[in-house]
Amino acid sequence: MSHASDTGPDPLALESGGLLTIDLDALAANYRLLRDRVVPARCAAVVKADGYGLGAPLVARRLQAEGCRDFFVAQLGEGIALRPHLGDDCRILVLNGPFPGSAAFFERHRLLPVLNSLEQIAEWQALSAMLGRRLDAAMQTDTGMSRYGLSGTDLRRIADEPHRLDGIRPSLLMSHLGCADTPGHPMNRQQIERFCEHRALLRGALGDVPASLAASSGIMLGPEAHFDMVRPGAALYGVNPGPGANPMHPVVRLQGRVVQTRWIEPGTSVGYGARFTAQRRTRIATLAVGYADGFLRAGGGAGIATLPDDPTALPVVGRISMDCLGLDVTALGDRELAAGSLIDLIGPHRPLDDAAAAAGTIGYEMLTALGSRHQRRVFGQQA
Ligand SMILES: *Cc1c(COP(=O)(O)O)cnc(C)c1O
Question: Which residue's CA is the nearest one to ligand 1's atom 12?
Fold first, then answer.
């Protein structure tokens, strides 16, 4: 039998219940938007957690093609995996810094640690002594989040005893804002001031080192938060960095495939725990995306979906299962919904942030929860 004229669907693609579309041109446009906004500061890119679930090599390579040269990951392993995908002129910084015994791996893979504590400084110093040369590193200070970074006390010790940095060539001084998504929050001002104090305190020991404070939301606070480099992650991927209208382009579309539809009579329930019971004759579509695909269970009874060409809200009803969810598609009447056809869970009529809010979470968590089970389609120029 000849298949020469067979243009039917790829059966392997149809295996997956969800289709995740990633628009690299939108990602690039988001990068340019942020980069242009912070001039003369540099714009880095945060690609931790596998590029917020989109694929770190895919997004980092495209951002490199847009001119980005500074990339942040959280973990050593993420940096090692990313290194071969980027050119020698790109820096990869590892936010967690070295755990005891891991410093040599940073050096071997040309990764820059973010040194967060006196212990991590000592780790990096020990390697420097062993290799007999100075080693670059970023240094982080804690300006109020109590999460990562050197304390004020640590900084005064370094300022008083600059030999504590022997062997280390600091190439970036950084900290992180805790409340930047709330522009009026008093903590923003406090953290900016404290960061300036930290810079001043270390100037004697370090000289003038480039400084970085703002992530996505910090960029929206304006120039006084930008310093020499900004570090957006979420906004690159389409998450709204501010409280107002979203200036970013959507990068991700998530569609689920229809498994089957049915009409149910009043009194009939849908899904585990019978948490939804039809009050009227109701048409239910089973969509093959569940919480194992990042469509969080907490969104049961609160989410909505839409057809690609029609903004009518189709409510998620009943509990979300591991592999599927139920949609009330009564509003579509008897309109055909063929098995395998696609319905948007995140799409033109359903922004990522709204889908996340319905599940009681934020776009960040929704993206990083997407997982590996979707069929992935990439739009836009790959680099
Ligand atoms: C995750 C992270 C970022 C990026 O934050 P977004 O809000 O996603 O832009 C920047 N800096 C640090 C230290 C981070 O941990």
Answer: 176
CA of 242 from ligand 1 middle (Å) equals 14
The pLDDT score that the predictor gives to residue 3 is: 40
Architecture category of domain 24-237 in CATH: Alpha-Beta Barrel (3.20)
pLDDT (tens digit, 9 = 90+) per residue, 179-224? 999 999 999 999 999 999 999 999 988 889 999 999 999 999 999 9
Binding-site residues for substrate: 147, 322
CATH topology of domain 249-379: Lyase, Ornithine Decarboxylase; Chain A, domain 1 (2.40.37)
Backbone angles phi, psi at 276, to 5 degrees: -125, 130
Pocket test for ligand 1, best of 31, 34, 35, 46 (most atoms within 8 A of CB): 46
Q: Are strands 269-270 and 276-277 parallel, antiparallel or unpaired?
A: antiparallel
Asked if pLDDT for residue 5 goes beyond 70, the answer is: no
Ligand 1: residues whose CB is within 6 Å?
46, 48, 95, 176, 215-217, 231-235
Q: Measure the CA–CA gap between 87 and 286, rounded to whole angstroms.
A: 45
**Residue-level pLDDT at 171:** 96
Q: Alpha carbon of 282 to those of 90, 93, 173, 316, 335: distances in Å?
A: 56, 53, 59, 13, 14
DSSP element (H, E) containing 65: helix 56-65
pLDDT (tens digit, 9 = 90+) per residue, 93-104? Answer: 999 999 999 999
Q: Report the predicted TM-score, pTM, of the whole model to 2 decimal places.
A: 0.95
Provide the pLDDT for residue 206: 86
Structure tokens at 4: 């020469």
Can you tell me which atom of ligand 1 is nearest the CA of 174? 13
Q: What is the CA radius of gyration of the chain?
A: 24
Q: Give the tokens for residue 216.
A: 């996505």
What is the spatial distance between Cα 271 and Cα 139, in angstroms, rounded to a whole number?
A: 51
Q: How many CB atoms lie within 10 A of CB 349?
A: 17
Q: Which atom of ligand 1 is nearest to the CA of 239?
A: 8
Distance in Å, CA 232 to ligand 1 centroid: 6
Domain boundaries, the chain: 24-237, 249-379
Q: What is the pLDDT of residue 298?
A: 87
Mean pLDDT value of segment 332-360: 95
Q: Are strands 45-46 and 42-43 parallel, antiparallel or unpaired?
A: unpaired
Residues with a catalytic annotation lie at 48, 272
- Is the previous residue joined to 40 through a cis bond, with omega within 30 degrees of 0? yes
Q: And the tokens for 367?
A: 């993206």
